[in-house]
Fold this protein.
Amino acid sequence: MKPNWAAIVMATAFLSACGGDEHQDLKQWMADSAKDLQGRIQPIPEVKAFPVVSYDAADLIDPFDARKILPEKRGQGTGLQPDFDRPREPLEAFPLESLKMVGVVRTKSGFHGLIDASGVVHQVKPGSHIGLDFGVITAITESEVRIKELVQDPSGQTADWVERPTTLQIQESAASQKESRK
């Protein structure tokens, strides 16, 4: 196939017509504006050497792992003390404020509580450990879980441990709350 020379010549003529002097005033303004501009490049800042610091806390307790944070062992107090050597139970990794009682199960031996911890439901019974403050479940009713926590003296004057009673109330679901309002 032979090239169509006539079409090539006409296309060249049309394209050369576009490059005329009709925008000469715009080109002149651009040249005048760029005449006074000079590029200013800042010198590269000098890199300062930082002192090398060794990390000596690698074998200490991780401050962001709640299961590993234990109060200081003090032997001078008299009376109650938590068992630091006891294996921790799963619900001892959560503060009581984040736990919700969502139900109860009646068995031959009594009630078992259903506790929601971050979307996972755990079954507990009296004697189970719960919370960050050495909590022990003392009783379970249809509406609440009674807990006895062991905390250091809140006044800070002694190293003694004191019992602090608390409860987890059952949380009604949104559907049952709507039905009870009708």
Residues 175-181 have pLDDT under 50 and may be disordered.
